[in-house]
Amino acid sequence: MESLFKRWRAKRFFRREPATDQPINLTHKRIFILPTQRGMGFVVLILLLLLIAFVYNNNLAYLLCFLLGSVFFITILHTFKSLSGLTIYKGQATSVFAGESAGFDIYVNNPSPQQRVNLQLHLTEDVLFSLEPQQKQGITLYSPTQKRGWHSCEKIILSCTYPLGLFRAWSVLRFDFKALVYPKPLKDSVIFPESAGTQNQQGTAKTGNDEFYGLKEYQSGDSIRHIHWKAFAKGLGLFSKQYSGETFAELWLDYDAASGHDTEQRLSCMCRWLVDADKAGLHYGFILPNLRIEPSSGTVHFKKCLEALALF
Predict the structure, then answer these.
(1) Is the pLDDT assigned to residue 39 strictly greater than 60?
(2) In this structure, how many other beta carbons lie within 10 angstroms of the beta carbon of residue 32?
(3) Are 127 and 103 in contact (CB under 8 A)?
(4) What is the residue-wise DSSP string for 98-160?
(5) pLDDT for 276
(6) Distance CA 267, CA 273 (A)
(7) Three-state DSSP class for 226?
(8) DSSP letter string over 229-287?
(9) CA–CA separation, 54 vs 74, rounded Å?
(10) 219, burial (CB in 10 Å: exposed 0-12, middle 13-18, buried 19+)
């Protein structure tokens, strides 16, 4: 049993809790409660009634004053119990491009048979919700991003003013929560660079059994039927469909070939290439001054390259 002095030690109020990956259970140690503006007005009303009852020695005024006072103090308990016992879990963070809002998933569990109403989660905006008995609910909170790299989720505040709005109970939640922010791609499409490397294979004639492999840069003599018109319509250049067994030149997205006056502009250019190449279904390689990713395609390859840009 903690002593009263330890419960009221100064660091509980002025020293923030360390960030954690573990679920947070709301107990009396984590919940704070203070009167709201409405609650302070309610106190003034009680004091005025008490003064009137004293001046006029009116028993009915005394009765009304004590009745309102009992409601005031009972509300403290109900407001506290609206948060007490809840368990909050850390979920997943959504990776985004710079300038977009990163999403952080939070799960709130109500293990008690008591309904919890008028709950509020706050990160940058308020999210109102309620919990039924034995219910667990997931909520996504959004935080705007400005630059690439890791974006940390600052303090999350869970609060409640139930039942009369006279008091506000709240708890500050700090999770070790980070979202990866990719560079912001250029607004307009940029022509892909010329291939920095070529993978040569023994060419064979395409047969009906050959399967679609990817795209290659268009070369004089390629069949017009193999042209990838969607990529051409988007201004990405002229490409031909590649089938297994055919000779093709790999597309390399090279940092040295990116346009821009500084590092961030070059990374934005490369990010534009990645987005366009992925949409077009291209088979591409990726080169940074400290990293080389062999050519491939698909979502996993796309995210691997974006992560490299974000952490460059």
Answers:
(1) yes
(2) 15
(3) no
(4) TTSEEEEEEEEEE-SSS-EEEEEEESSSEEEEEE-TTEEEEEEEEEE--SSEEEE---EEEEE
(5) 87
(6) 10
(7) helix
(8) HHHHHTTS--EEEEETTS--PPEEEEGGG---SSHHHHHHHHHHHHHHHHHHT--EEEE
(9) 24
(10) exposed
- Longest CA–CA separation in the chain, Å: 109
Grouping H, G, I as helix, E, B as strand and the rest as coil, residue 200 is coil
pLDDT at 127: 94
C-beta of residue 110 within 8 angstroms of C-beta of residue 82: no
Strand order in the sheet with 24-25: 24-25, 87-93, 101-110, 135-144
Sign of CA dihedral 186, 189, 190, 192: positive
Range in 12-21, 153-162, 202-211 with the lowest mean pLDDT: 202-211
Using one digit for the tens of pLDDT, what is the confidence trace for 84-94?
999 999 999 99
Name the amino acid, one letter, at 310.
Answer: A
- pTM of the full structure: 0.75
CB atoms within 10 A of CB 176: 12
Which of 12, 59, 52 lies closest to 32, judged by CA?
12
Q: CB 53: neighbour CB atoms within 10 A? A: 18
The C-alpha angle with vertex 306 and arms to 303 and 312, in degrees rounded to 5, equals 140
SS3 of residue 299 by DSSP: helix
Q: What is the DSSP string of 11-78?
A: HHHHSPPPPBSS-EE--TTT-EEEE-HHHHHHHHHHHHHHHHHHHHT-HHHHHHHHHHHHHHHHHHHH
Q: Phi and psi of 228, rounded to 5°? A: -90, 95
Phi, psi of 10 (to 5 degrees): -65, -35
